[in-house]
Amino acid sequence: xxxxxxxxxxxxxxxxxxxxxxxxxxxxxxxxxxxxxxxxxxxxxxxxxxxxxxxxxxxxxxxxxxxxxxxxxxxxxxxxxxxxxxxxxxxxxxxxxxxxxxxxxxxxxxxxxxxxxxxxxxxxxxxxxxxxxxxxxxxxxxxxxxxxxxxxxxxxxxxxxxxxxxxxxxxxxxxxxxxxxxxxxxxxxxxxxxxxxxxxxxxxxxxxxxxxxxxxxxxxxxxxxxxxxxxxxxxxxxxxxxxxxxxxxxxxxxxxxxxxxxxxxxxxxxxxxxxxxxxxxxxxxxxxxxxxxxxxxxxxxxxxxxxxxxxxxxxxxxxxxxxxxxxxxxxxxxxxxxxxxxxxxxxxxxxxxxxxxxxxxxxxxxxxxxxxxxxxxxxxxxxxxxxxxxxxxxxxxxxxxxxxxxxxxxxxxxxxxxxxxxxxxxxxxxxxxxxxxxxxxxxxxxxxxxxxxxxxxxxxxxx
Length: 463
Fold this sequence. Notes:
Keywords: ATP-binding, Helicase, Hydrolase, Nucleotide-binding. Residues 40-211 form the Helicase ATP-binding domain. Belongs to the DEAD box helicase family. It holds the Pfam family Helicase_C. The protein has a seven-stranded parallel beta sheet with strand order 3-4-2-5-6-1-7, sandwiched between helices. A seven-stranded parallel beta sheet has the order 10-11-9-12-13-8-14, with helices on both faces. A four-stranded antiparallel beta sheet has the order 16-17-15-20, covered by helices on one side. The protein has three domains: 11-212, Rossmann fold, CATH 3.40.50.300; 217-374, Rossmann fold (3-Layer(aba) Sandwich); 389-462, 2-Layer Sandwich (Alpha-Beta Plaits), CATH 3.30.70.330. Helix 3 packs across helix 4 (87-100), helix 6 packs across helix 8 and helix 10 (234-245) packs across helix 11 (257-269). The protein has helices spanning 18-26, 34-44, 59-69, 87-100, 119-127, 136-144, 161-166, 170-179, 195-204, 234-245, 257-269, 283-294, 305-308, 328-335, 356-363, 404-411, 441-449; strands at residues 49-52, 80-83, 109-112, 131-134, 155-158, 185-190, 209-212, 222-228, 250-254, 274-277, 300-304, 318-322, 345-351, 373-374, 389-394, 422-427, 432-437, 452-453, 456-457, 460-462. By secondary structure, it is of the alpha/beta class. The protein contains 17 helices and 20 strands.
């Protein structure tokens, strides 16, 4: 483990190019997080590392800077391979790398994930890329069909390696490790450290430096409460908590896909602005769900742990676990989604009779015994959580050279909508999404559907 007292704290102390320092400044990075301070000097020195750090600790920027620092733009071939457990995480990682590469010339980052047609990926691979980010299964499929050459790979990253193993990607990961040059640098990041991670590390690298990052200070600002379900149905208990707490947004974790959908349906019936996220949804529906939740068009997201892994949600007021997670590491991961960046957060766990054993295991990590509280009864007049925004989906994206500024211009062209009426904008390869106030949605749709943007017509619809 590295000594945090002697680690650098400012990016300017590292051997980074002026272009990377410029991108960091433009992206708002000021001081390094603990994981960056401990791992970046080692990564930039070219050493292999195994980093154990919680989600939200800043690990993506750490390995992204390591990749970009050694990238040779003149070689238009894959030089870095980043493996992720889910498409959602892969998209976020790719976007983070693009952001940090903004001041560098012509860095191409390509995302390769399952759940979407391969034909567009095949076309992109034919045009070449410097960095490949994706899920192990889809990348191996392309490799087996000779669409990817790994001979120039200088950096291999396994992000959230523990979840990839949990999801059954062991064989695919082994095949990709074998396909990449032995001279590569290997970077493994994992929130937990089960025995399989130790075995995987030994397979990837014989001398990886182990860096363990303590939980961030933000985690200590999380208040945990445990409520006794008693005879209350889980969906009703969640409804009572939402009415009582009135959070700006909330994630509800369930242990099964069936329960996830059932609770989301019942909360919707109670009038809450709620969406479900689980493995039975098609990829496009998962993408739309996450866009709507992260831009504030839905205030409650009910999800399974696997589906929610790697989601980048910066501010979350409340986390509710319906029953104990399968293990204490997953419980810690759930509650760590609130109280980020120094903010205070509340994590609630609903306890039924079947949770007693796992509750006692968790209690062993506490300084004092866990006391179950009765469910709160919301005050009279409390209303369901409703979103003020709605998401519009446009039939164009990066492939059409569409930019957020173009969408803002289209929505404000007649001066009836202002920036106050427009929320977050996300432009993907094929689609673009913009959040607008519900009161302005009809007019926004008219503006987009009845006029051109950059000389081209796009169709828009409300999700």
